[in-house]
Structure formats: C-alpha cells, structure tokens
Amino acid sequence: MLIGDTSGGESTIQRDTTPPMATRMGVVGSPTSSSESGSGDCSIFEPDFDLSPLIKEELRTTIRNRRINSGKSDDLSYDDPPKPQYKLTKEEEEKRQVRRDRNRIAAAKCRQKRKQETMELSLESEKLQTTNARLREEIEKLQHEKETLIKLINSHRPTCIMKTGRDPNVAHTVHSFKYSVR
C-alpha cells in the first residue's frame, strides 16, 4: 500500500510494510500510526499481540484455495517427494537377498521356538492341573478317613475307660487326648 505525505509542501510516497492481516486488524503501532508513539521512527512495529498465528492461518487458507482452484486436493499434509530410484549393483542385490533370506529363516525359527514354548507351557499346565485335582481328591479322602477314625475312637472310648479303669496311666492317656473333626 502506498502512503502519500504532503507535509512541508513536498509530496513524497512511502511504501507501507505492514502485513495485510495487520492492516485489516487495525493494529496500533503500525508505521502509519508512528506519530502516536512519540519517537517519530516509522520503522518501529510494536503490535500488542503476536500476529504469527494469524499470518500462518491466512497463508494456509490462501494455499488451500489455490489448490482447490487448480483441481488438487485441499489436504495440506505434505508428502515427501518421491525418492529417486537407485539402481543396485549385482553385488549389492546379492547381499540384500542373502540378508533377506537370513532374516526370513531367523523369523521362521523364532516363530517355531515361540510355538514350541507355548505348547510346552500348555502341556505343563495340563499336567499340573491333573496333579492338583489328584491331590485334592487325596486330601478329601484322607479327611474322610480321619473323620471315620475319630468317630471310631470316640465310640470306643467308654469301653477303653472301663477296661483300663484300674491302670491310671492308660486312662489318663485316653482322657487327655482330645479328638475333634476339623
């Protein structure tokens, strides 16, 4: 934008360097309002806020509009330009193929090893579950046997006391033994 100055009788023309967005926003401190700052320096530009986000958004909008007008997509994500195809030498191609083959073999070996470990863990888990079930059955059986023996002793105790009533040591041993079902 050109600004004309007619002070002093001589007409001079200055170029306004204020960004278009700042001019539209009416920013105080632009070169056109330098007389207000008191310094008289026309090159001072002191906006009250940061204009860079506004300028960036205006630039994005302009680019988007141009892309739409030219028939391109309005997507502003910038893809990397296609890299030039580098022709590999025969030796490099062989090295690449050997490396790929080794990698393929290593990957297959790793998958096989992982599969084998999974199968082993599964078998061990089944084995431990079977052992656990067998031990629980044995515990239940032993508890039942214990209850049966305690009942037998409790039912037999009065007979033992009568027969061993003469021997205090035997009677004392039988009476001091407490039988209970847990």
From TrEMBL:
GO terms for cellular component: nucleus. Residues 26-43 have a biased composition (Low complexity). Residues 1-47, 66-102 are annotated as: Disordered. GO terms for molecular function: DNA-binding transcription factor activity, RNA polymerase II-specific; RNA polymerase II cis-regulatory region sequence-specific DNA binding. Residues 93-156 form the BZIP domain. InterPro entries: AP-1, bZIP, bZIP_sf. Residues 8-17 have a biased composition (Polar residues). This is Cyclic AMP-dependent transcription factor ATF-3-like. It comes from Acanthaster planci. The lineage of its organism: Eukaryota, Metazoa, Echinodermata, Eleutherozoa, Asterozoa.
